Amino acid sequence: MGKLMIGSKSGKLTIINYSHSKNGKFWNVKCECGNEKIVSTSHFNQKQFYPKSCGCSLYPKDYKQLFLNNVNKTDSCWIWKGKIKSNGYGIFSIKKKENYAHRLSYLIHKGEIPSGKFICHSCDNPPCVNPDHLWLGDALSNNQDRIKKGRIRIKDIRKKNGVLTENQILEIRKIYRFNERGFGSGILSKKYGVTTETILSIVKRKSWKHI
């Protein structure tokens, strides 16, 4: 559609302004339904304008209010009051289809989610749906964020589905010796089949904090 500029249109959206911050560059867009969104410029290129709407065309007209009726807004997190899955994340059903509440909140307040992208929490609170606490990431950044916060076991990057046990975590911390031949992160990474970054994250207690 050529060079993007203020006034450019695609689908129901019109670009009304441009902004940037330490988190990236953004287009401010307005949908025909009246909603305004802030959309990352990474969603756009010269051949395609993404997304096509604020999300209003994907769900029933009253779904936003139904969604907000299930939200308890506090000074920080917006806690989901509806159904919660065993992993702690909220669920909102639309047309008999279950949707993660935090993803739907991102869709409502920030725009459509590109295929393959994850919605991550800056607050590390799974039932939170506050759009200010949600950010767009990929599989790698999502797992790195979860590992950093000690919320999941570390999956080996080089060995698919490899998972360290709690006993192995304790062994690594006991064996590791900084700058000592035979006991460093390089040797331990080969022994346990994980990366050196994983070993250092374990010994510095940046991950597996509960052990």
Keywords:
alpha+beta, four-stranded antiparallel β-sheet, 23% strand, 211 residues, three-stranded antiparallel β-sheet
Task: Lay out the secondary structure.
Layout (H helix, E strand, L loop, with lengths): L8 E2 L2 E9 L2 E8 L4 E5 L22 H6 L2 E3 L4 E3 L2 E2 L5 E5 L2 E4 H10 L7 E4 L12 E4 L1 H10 L17 H10 L9 H8 L3 H8 L8
Antiparallel strand pairs: 1-2, 2-3, 3-4, 5-6, 7-8, 8-9, 10-11
Describe the structure.
A four-stranded antiparallel β-sheet has the order 1-2-3-4, with no helix packed on it. The chain has a three-stranded antiparallel β-sheet with strand order 7-8-9. A two-stranded antiparallel sheet has the order 5-6. The chain has helices at residues 63-68, 101-110, 139-148, 166-175, 185-192, 196-203; strands at residues 9-10, 13-21, 24-31, 36-40, 71-73, 78-80, 83-84, 90-94, 97-100, 118-121, 134-137. Helix content is 25%, strand content 23%. It has 211 residues and is α+β, with helices and mostly antiparallel strands. The protein has three domains: 1-55, no CATH class; 58-137, no CATH class; 154-203, no CATH class. It contains six helices and eleven strands. The protein is elongated and about 65 Å long.
SSE run: EEEEHEEEEEHEEHHHH
Oligomeric status of the shown chains? single chain
The whole-number mean of residue pLDDT values reads 76
Name the structural class.
Answer: alpha+beta
Shape: elongated
Largest beta sheet, briefly? 4 strands, antiparallel
The neighbouring-strand order within the major sheet is: 1-2-3-4
Strand elements, count = 11
Number of helices: 6
Helical amount among residues, as a percent range?
Answer: 10-25%
Query: What is the gyration radius calculated from CA atoms?
Result: 21 Å
Span between termini: 54 Å
Strand content: 15-25%
Q: Residue ranges: pLDDT <50 for 5 or more in a row?
A: 154-162
The number of distinct structural domains comes to: 3
